[in-house]
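User: For my dataset I need records formatted as: sequence, then structure tokens, nothing else. Please produce one.
Assistant:
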Amino acid sequence: MRQVADTLNLQVSYYLRNKLRKSEIYTESPLYIKYIPAVKTNLDEIELEIEKSTTGYEIEGVYTDREGYTTNIKETMQSLPAHITIPADSSKLNIKLTGKEFIENEKYYVTINNITKAVNLLCSDLSVAQTSKNSSVLNIRLLTNNTEKGAIILRELVKQYNVMNVKTHNEIAYNTALFINERLKEIASELGDAEKQVVEYKQQNKIADLETEAQLFVQQTGENEQRLTDIETQLNVLSM
């Protein structure tokens, strides 16, 4: 789920007021904000309100750290893309447009959570269960306020699971091959030493004349080849 959150930038959520409540927008958001943490960040949550006017983009919000201390954010950007530096921990917000319609004089609300907090929230809303006791099919459900976003998250979750599965299998195969190759080297060395000892033992005890055995082997091989040639000739004659 951490891989899913990083890939889909899920620590950032976008909202638009719809009558009495805020509705989460995802693929329809005119904004894309990427939180770039400093080397050491203490972020708990950032809440922003962004409004487009004739003079530019008005950005107001609050940075809250994990101890509960807050820092106000207030910027006016004449155009986007742009970036904002958070004084509290020197982290940055990269803000750009997505090409979707940006309604003038309408406030867009953005929440940026600590990535661990965002992943924990996703995991708490996720449920996985077998369709039946003997089935290998799983039902995966995610509780979310935006159906389209939920479907995208689940598809990415399955994709990341498959990627991790392939990676794990590749690592197992690689480590197995490495182990086998190392063992083969050891076995080859052990066999070489054993054969050398056998030869030395035979020579010392004059059990066999290796030179004579080699000559007999070459002679027998030649005789076998000659017999094979004779038989092939007879077969050819019979075929004709």
